[in-house]
Amino acid sequence: TSEMLQKICIRNLVRKYCRGVTAERKAQLQQKAVASAVFRGKKEGYLQSVNQPFLDTRLKENDINPKVLQLIHGEKIKYVTPVTKYDRNGFKARDRLLVLTQSSAYVVEMAKIKQKIDYATLKGISTSNLSDGIVVIHVPEDNKQKGDVILQCEHIFETVTKLCLLANKQNLVKVVQGSLQFRIGAGKEGTMVFTVGQEPQVFKAKNGQLTVV
């Protein structure tokens, strides 16, 4: 009888907890569960991020240039965050916005859309096992795309989780060690090397590779 009562009590407690969870709390738990599946035991800094709630967005719609809002009119904006984009040729760092809508990801410069990636065509998302904030969005080889997108995000776990959830591409997220290949365009590929050092930095090495410390 005692064992039966214990089971009934636990079930009742679980039921009360589940019924008391708000929609916001449920969404937060779902996102954290995805982040755990993607990053737990794979990327440095994940454990420290667990108790930090994911925000709905890092910037609001009125922080986006009105011309950009006109260009993506009709698509509901779900998440916006500042990012640093690295050119595929030369790896120059540029301040950009990453705008995630219900159907596409946009890399935005002030009043211009620099690149649009439809989630349906997204080939993969890569990040390293170290504590850097680099994420590479892999796109298909076609005339519509310039090449893969190299970004650096301050809130890497949040940003990647939002992206893979909206794109429904959780299984395409890869946490790599050492290096990764990315497409520059027109059949060309580049190499990104991840290493450990005293100070964080991103630079083009003498051998032409993008090096992330």
TrEMBL record:
Q: Which domain of life is it from?
A: Eukaryota
What's one GO-annotated cellular component?
Answer: myosin complex
- From the UniProt record, which GO molecular function terms apply? cytoskeletal motor activity
- The name on file for this protein is Unconventional myosin-Ih
Q: Which PROSITE patterns match?
A: TH1 (PS51757)
Question: Which residues belong to any copy of the TH1 domain?
Answer: 43-213
Q: Per its UniProt record, what Pfam families does this chain match?
A: Myosin_TH1
